Amino acid sequence: MTKLDQIRAAESKLLLQTYERNPILFVRGEGVHLIDEGGAKYLDLLSGIGVNALGYGHPAIERAIVNQSRALIHTSNLFYHEGQAELAMRLTERTGMDRVFFSNTGTEAWEGALKLARAHAGLLRSEGKQIGTKFLALEQSFHGRTYGSMSTTYKAKYREPFAPGVPGVEFVKFNYVADLRAKFSNEVCAILVEAIQGEGGIRPLTQEFFAEARKLADSTGALLIVDEIQAGMGRTGKWCAYQHFGIKPDVTTLAKPIAGGIPLGAILCTEEAARAIHAGMHGTTFGGGPLACAVAIAVIDAIENEGLLKNTTEVGDYFQAQLRGMAKKHDCIKDVRGKGLMLAAELDSADLAKLTVAEMLKRHILINCTSDTVLRFLPPFILERKHVDEAIKALDEIFTEKAAALSAANQTAGGNNRG
Predict the structure, then answer these.
(1) 227 labelled ligand-binding
(2) What is the distance between the alpha carbons of residues 327 and 329, in angstroms, rounded to a whole number?
(3) 68 is in an annotated binding site
(4) 142 marked as part of a ligand binding site
(5) What is the pLDDT of residues 54-78, one digit of tens each?
(6) Residue 228 marked ligand-binding
(7) Is residue 10 classed exposed, middle or buried when 0-12, 13-18 and 19+ CB atoms within 10 A define those classes?
(8) Own/partner pairs for 407-411, CB < 8 Å, 24+ apart?
(9) What separation, in Å, do the N-terminal and C-terminal C-alpha atoms of the chain show?
(10) Which pTM was predicted?
(11) Residue 283 annotated as binding?
């Protein structure tokens, strides 16, 4: 029995069966590649679902982990350490926000943002304003798997097994301004959006919809909350995807790539929103610990020092152009979309999307599929054009082989019909 076989057998007996894992045992990583137990290299265009922004074995992360772990790993939030204020300064300067709360994960950050919205509405009511407690979220949204996050996530498969969810959530048709206007009222305490939906299929908001959401929120004092957990921290070529729109939210949430693989999330907000939170209203045991903060600072500095926002834009544009070229050649590609290195190719069938992910894996290239028909690409920010070319070549082979197989099947069927 191989080591992988032993692990699979143990996990099947001991773990909650929440994941359908691929039968590969990765033991280390180098740059944009993961290496399995047999030494085979895999080009990683998924980066741990958007987490490993600097790839694998980046010296800045390794140095930060070694130095901070020797000095101090945890203190609790009852005491000060050097990392939180320094990291908060970097984040607020780059996002235009005023204040930060650190959590462990993205879904915890989103939970905190929801609490902040309800508390802010309560503060406004105490000041004489009429504002309710309702949330408007978007169809196809995904905000995480804890209870409030799940309740504001659209797809039934994430919510229904655990129903009922948190009350007071209504979903708006994606990018449908008239539906947003119809469902908004002074009963709404917050409008919840992703500037670019991730799990929902890499779907950007339209400028018109985003601007209307900002306008409506301003009209009553409701908060505009933008989930940047997947799109933020440089993935789209700017620190936050909302910066492409020139629209500033009241609250935003960050996580996945923020600390290069060390768990960390953050709520960022304006001074106005921050008025609603006082000591004791919210907290965390591990969030914003010295180790995570030190690594996050190193990640931000590396992104800037190595020009990775520019690289994300340039290589992302090249990647998207190659995918669009493929769409002209292969009818199965119905749409190509995204920004920077947050890209998608939507196919014409869920079966083909699933087969493509499997065929790419056979060619040692990691991607995944979301929304059934969408191939999702979330590579490390250090990706180069040669890696894009490798992926495009593999996709071209797969779609060409699929088209040839389909043509042969049709010819056989035609011959049988003539017979």
Answers:
(1) yes
(2) 5
(3) no
(4) yes
(5) 999 999 999 999 999 999 999 999 9
(6) yes
(7) exposed
(8) none
(9) 51
(10) 0.95
(11) no
